[in-house]
Amino acid sequence: MGHFKFGRAAGRPTQAAIALAGLLAVGTVGLAAARADDEPKSPPEDAWLSTPSGADIMDYYPTDARDKHISGRVELRCKTNPKGVLTDCTVRSEEPAGGKFGAATLKIAHKFRLKAAYAAALPSDTVIPLKMRWVSPG
């Protein structure tokens, strides 16, 4: 993947740059791959009914990190209800530590929703791993 340089106006990202950064962040939302037999398995990409939009990403992006052009990565572990809503999410890892990306990902987690048919077929104690990469607009 190539590197992108976003436009700036008066020291601030342009609206096009912010929108592109949000889309890139949504495009890099991924599901954690199982690393061992006891690790939870991720749903396939087509099991998702909805994920955050580019505007959502920018709304939840940690202000200090956005202002300093810092990107981040977070892995959550969540459960899901039969309607596909993620519940009981916890932060498994956050980079950079203390960058507030974990808290932001917990706040935006309600924007992720599995298709009801997929979620209803899961055992009630299923843990869903979710990785999110936050891409700085600057």
Sum this structure up briefly:
The chain has 5 helices and 7 strands, in the order ββαβααββαβαβ. The protein has 138 residues and is of the alpha+beta class.
CATH class: Alpha Beta
Distance between the termini: 17 Å
Calculate Rg over CA atoms. Answer: 16 Å
Shape: elongated
How many distinct domains?
1
Overall pLDDT level: 78
Which spans of ≥5 residues are poorly predicted at pLDDT below 50? 1-36
Major beta sheet summary = 3 strands, antiparallel
Sequence of strands across the biggest β-sheet = 5-4-7
**Number of beta strands:** 7
Strand content: 25-35%
Order of helices and strands: EEHEHHEEHEHE
Please tell me the CATH architecture by its name.
2-Layer Sandwich
User: Percent of residues in helical segments?
Assistant: 25-40%
Please tell me about this protein's structure.
It is a single chain. With 138 residues, the protein is an alpha+beta fold. It has a single domain (8-134), classed as TolA/TonB C-terminal domain, CATH 3.30.2420. The chain has five helices and seven strands, in the order ββαβααββαβαβ. The strands form three sheets. The chain has a three-stranded antiparallel β-sheet with strand order 5-4-7, covered by helices on one side. A hairpin with a 5-residue loop joins β4 (72-80) and β5 (86-95). α1 crosses α2 (54-60). It starts with 7 loop residues before the first strand and ends with a strand. Mean pLDDT is 78; it is low at 1-36.
Descriptive key words:
alpha+beta; TolA/TonB C-terminal domain; three-stranded antiparallel sheet; two-stranded antiparallel sheet; 28% helix; disordered N terminus
